Task: structure prediction
Amino acid sequence: MWPIDLPPKWVDRSRELAILRAGIEALRHGGGAAVWVEGEPGIGKSSLVVEALAGTSELGWDIGWGIADQLAERLPLSVMQDCLQVRLSSPDPRRAHAAGLLRSQRLGLFPRRHESSRPRMRIP
Result:
């Protein structure tokens, strides 16, 4: 899905790299893994992930990539949609369909209430 280029300069993070590679090995053997990588901007999060994924291209896996920031917090699942490339314009019909379903379910920040759905108070 996304091209993976090794970082031009690598700063050793053997412990963190071992954790990511253990997750990759679990996937190789049919297990599942989810890893959340976070930290200050510019400390090498992307380089760490790219280094861990080096050598996985021969496995034929689709590699997804998502980047979160404070603006993305307001849109549920937006990072996963980016990672999986779930877009209306996707050439993959499954992804385009999923994007359409997600878009049709969005109510917005302030959904309008219909007159008939307003709570009614009955006074005896």
In short: The radius of gyration is 21 Å. The mean pLDDT is 76.
